[in-house]
Every structure is written in structure tokens, then in C-alpha cells.
Design a protein that fits this description.
globular, Ammonium transporter fold, mainly alpha, two-stranded antiparallel sheet
């Protein structure tokens, strides 16, 4: 009888071992972000029949099951389309109204081609370089394991920012694709009205690879909330994250990745290509402020998807990002206009539009972290600073950033990125930083440590974008000549470069 019971116990243990092995083998990773599974444990129990002590294998603590909510997916699909609307026609019309009439087709064509190339490049290598593990280079850039979207199909999921919540990976790919497109398109404003179309084509192929994809990886690559929810993973979580994420720097929707990055690239391009012929000697006013106003409205509208969509879920944090995307640009538009009114005697429509965009830029990194009052303060502060950058600073340094990309996106992005470290403070009405290991509690490391983290992120962004953009602009200029001739510039880039004009008298 004893032998029979012993055999039965052995069979039970063997069955448990087989079931455990099968379960572990079936747990193949489907997420875009790394996850860890705890090892199995053993407990001691007494056999009911004999009282003999036996070891019983227990199943390992399971990784929380991932759930996909149609509401989250629907919101992300809408947000993706909203960001596309920001580029075509939003940014295209905003920039188009600011250039002279003879260069309207040129700027519209450049925005369009950069967007098209950006989508193809994202499909080929962009997504993989931004959102996969980069091995030995992981601090700076991802790998090529998902080049051409290898393994990304309708069954693949990525985590959001809540433990156990996911969205289809294809949705995430498309959403981030639009970010890559608009960042490169923003740069165009710095070199408008004198750059060759062929130069822009080369730039739009090389710049994302050398600059944007690594920046997106450094800022947004991490282990995910499931991994972060286990304190035992703290060391692996920190060592496996992108460089700027590892600093503890916060960037909700792209203050560093999109705005500082594009602002620095635009400044480098403007300096390298030189000013427009006649710059500072003859007036170069916007040819159609109506288009600029329409473009501003489309940018603001689409920016809701840009900021609130970056939450990846349709919940209270998305609502927070949405209201912040309303109040910050409103505050910046008012503060810019009031400053302009006092200093120049008249409030301009261009000032209102520029102020609103500056407020949108400043609140981008803080969108899901700041309280509404904090977002309003960011907007009120950034308006006059960006006005000075686009007038006094630009005049003093004598660089020709045609459409003030550096003055608004570069400077506004820096103010917003640093300010995020302040307005995230729960004591100031901020949402705090989610501590997954503490069950999702909001924490704040303190004003000085967080601002230092933000400053480190800003410094790396400026350095990386500055050096990388210089390399790309030098190559693009070397291959194509960089800018059109003085004769073409005087006549207008439209007909010489594209064989068509925007208007027929």
C-alpha cells in the first residue's frame, strides 16, 4: 500500500511538472516592450494519508493577462487621424500662409513629400529602431528585429501605461508614424523659401535615421508597466530603458523628441544654408494670414490627438491632457498678444496664432502630468519668451529661421520640458508620477531632482539633434547643392522647382 501511494505521489509530481513546463513554453512574448516572469517556487505540505512531508511544485506567479478595450483602440485610431490632420493640411496651410506667394507650392510640396517619405521609412526601419531592444546600443537606439514590421500582425499587442491593458500593435505603429512625419515636417520652416526640393528629399530620408528614431528610443523606450509593477525588476527596468528615460525625465507627448529636436534641426539648417536673399534688407511678410489662421485651428484641433492620444488609453489622464491642450495655448496666445500690444502698439493676428502654437509646444511634455492651472501658467510664461526669441534674439544673432521654428518649437520646447518638472508636482495641482510598484500611487521625487532630470534630457536632445542634424544637412547640401540660385529665389521657387504656381492672376 505504501509503495502504491509513493507511486501515486510520483505520478502527481510528474504531471505537475509537465503542466508547468507546457504553460511556460506557451508564454511567448507578444509585447513590444520587455517583460520578465518570476521563477516557480516550492512549498512543503504533508500527505493526508501518511503525514509524510512532500514537496509540491507551485505555478509561477503569472504575468497579468492583457486586455484590449475597444474604447481605447477606437480613441487611438481617432487620435492617429487627428495627428495626420495636423500635418496635411494643418501644418502645410500654417506654413503656406507665412511664406511669400511665389513660394506657396514649394512649401506645400515639401510638407507633403516629407510626410510620404516619413511613412515609408517608418515602415521599413523607423518603428524598429525606435521601439525595439537595441542590444549593446539600447541606451541610444533600437534594433532591426521589427524592420519592415516583421512579426507585427493583427494578433500583436503593446502595453499602454496601465498594468494589464494593451492596444493592437498596428495601432501604436500608425500613431507613432505620424509623430515621425510631423517632426521632420516642422524642420522645413527653418529653411523655407530657398532650399531645393531634392535637398529636402535627402534630408527626410537621412535625418530620421540619425536623429529622430534614436531620440524617440532614448525618451520613450522602457520595460512597460507590468515589469515596473514588480519591485524585483527595478534594476533591470532602469538598465534596459532608453538614455533619457533612465534619467527619470518626463516627456508625455514629445517636448524633447518632437519640438526641441525639430527646432535645433531647423536652426542648424538655417545657419548652414544661409539667409534668404534680401533678408533684413527688404520686407518678407506672410502672403496669406487667412491660411495661417486656418492652419493654426487645424493644428490646435489635431493637437488634442497628439497630446491626449499619447496616453494610449481613453481615461481620466487623456481628459487631463485634453483640457491642458485647451488652456495652455489660450494662455500663451493672450500673453504673446498682450506683450506685443504693449511693446509694439498693436495686437496682431499672427501674434495670436504664434502664441497659441507656442503654448501647444510648451504643454506637450506636460500634457498628462500638469494640472490645468499649471498648464495655464506654462502658456502664460512661454508666450512672451517665444515672442522675444522670434524677434529680439533672432535680430541680435542675425540668423534666418524663416518661419521661426527654433523660436517657437525649440525655445518653447525647452521651456515646456523644464517646466514639466515643476508642474507635475502634486502640491502644485499636478498628477505626479505613477509608481507601479506601489500599486499606481502618484509620487514626486522633489523639485530639484526632477528639474535636474529634465535639464539632462534637454541637454542630450540639444547635443544629439545638433550634431546629427549638422551631419545630415552637410550630406544633403553636398549631394544637391542645398539651395536654389539667387535668380530662382528672386523669381520664386514654385515654377523653377515644380513647374507650377499657386495663383494665376
Amino acid at each position: 500500500m505504501t509503495k502504491t501511494k509513493g507511486l501515486w505521489r510520483s505520478l502527481r509530481l510528474a504531471a505537475l511538472a509537465l503542466v508547468g513546463a507546457a504553460a511556460l513554453g506557451a508564454m511567448t512574448p507578444e509585447l513590444a516592450f520587455a517583460q520578465e516572469t518570476s521563477a516557480a517556487v516550492e512549498t512543503v505540505a504533508a500527505d493526508e494519508g501518511t503525514g509524510e512531508v512532500i514537496a509540491v511544485a507551485e505555478a509561477a506567479p503569472e504575468t497579468p493577462a492583457l486586455t484590449v478595450d475597444k474604447g481605447d483602440t477606437g480613441w487611438m485610431l481617432v487620435s492617429t487621424v487627428l495627428v495626420l490632420l495636423m500635418i496635411i493640411p494643418g501644418l502645410a496651410l500654417f506654413y503656406g500662409g507665412l511664406v511669400r506667394a511665389k513660394n506657396m507650392v514649394s512649401i506645400l510640396s515639401q510638407v507633403f513629400v516629407v510626410t510620404a517619405i516619413g511613412m515609408v521609412m517608418w515602415l521599413f526601419v523607423g518603428y524598429s529602431l525606435a521601439f525595439t531592444d537595441g542590444g549593446g546600443l539600447n541606451r541610444f537606439v533600437g534594433g532591426l528585429s521589427k524592420a519592415f514590421l516583421t512579426g507585427v500582425d493583427t494578433t500583436a499587442l503593446v502595453e499602454t501605461f496601465s498594468v494589464g491593458v494593451a492596444i493592437p500593435e498596428l495601432t501604436f505603429v500608425a500613431f507613432q508614424m505620424t509623430f515621425a512625419c510631423i517632426t521632420a515636417a516642422l524642420v522645413l520652416g527653418g529653411v523655407a523659401e530657398r532650399v531645393k526640393f531634392s535637398t529636402i528629399v535627402i534630408f527626410s530620408i537621412l535625418w530620421p535615421v540619425l536623429v529622430y528614431y534614436p531620440m524617440a528610443h532614448m525618451v520613450w523606450w522602457w520595460g512597460g508597466p507590468i515589469m515596473a509593477s514588480d519591485p524585483a525588476n527595478a534594476e533591470a527596468l532602469a538598465s534596459g530603458a532608453g538614455l533619457i528615460w533612465s534619467f527619470g525625465a518626463l516627456d508625455f507627448a514629445g517636448g524633447t523628441v518632437v519640438h526641441i529636436n525639430s527646432g535645433i534641426a531647423a536652426l542648424v539648417g538655417a545657419l548652414l544654408l544661409g539667409p534668404r536673399t534680401g533678408y533684413r534688407k527688404e520686407p518678407m511678410p506672410p502672403h496669406n494670414l487667412t491660411f495661417t489662421m486656418i492652419g493654426t485651428g487645424l493644428l490646435w484641433f489635431g493637437w488634442v490627438g497628439f497630446n491626449a492620444g499619447s496616453n494610449l488609453e481613453s481615461n481620466a489622464y487623456a481628459a487631463l491632457a485634453l483640457i491642458n491642450t485647451f488652456v495652455a495655448p489660450a494662455g500663451a496666445a493672450l500673453s504673446w498678444t498682450l506683450t506685443e500690444w504693449v511693446t509694439k502698439g498693436k495686437p496682431s493676428l499672427l501674434g495670436l496664432a504664434s502664441g497659441a502654437v507656442a503654448g501647444l509646444v510648451a504643454v506637450t511634455p506636460a500634457a498628462g502630468f500638469a494640472g490645468p492651472v499649471g498648464a495655464l501658467i506654462l502658456g502664460l510664461v512661454v508666450g512672451p519668451i517665444c515672442l522675444f526669441a522670434c524677434s529680439g534674439l533672432k535680430s541680435w544673432l542675425k540668423y534666418d529661421d524663416s518661419l521661426d521654428v527654433f523660436g517657437i518649437h525649440g525655445i518653447g520646447g525647452i521651456i515646456g520640458a523644464i517646466g514639466t518638472g515643476i508642474v507635475v508636482n502634486p502640491a502644485f495641482g499636478g498628477a505626479g508620477i505613477v509608481d507601479y510598484a506601489a500599486g499606481g500611487a502618484a509620487v514626486y521625487p522633489g523639485l530639484v531632482p526632477q528639474v535636474i532630470s529634465q535639464l539632462k534630457g534637454v541637454a542630450v536632445t540639444i547635443a544629439w539633434s545638433g550634431v546629427g542634424s549638422l551631419i545630415v544637412w552637410v550630406i544633403a547640401r553636398g549631394l544637391t547643392g542645398g539651395r536654389v540660385s539667387k535668380e530662382v529665389e528672386a523669381e520664386g521657387v514654385d515654377y523653377a522647382e515644380h513647374g507650377e504656381v499657386a495663383y494665376h492672376n
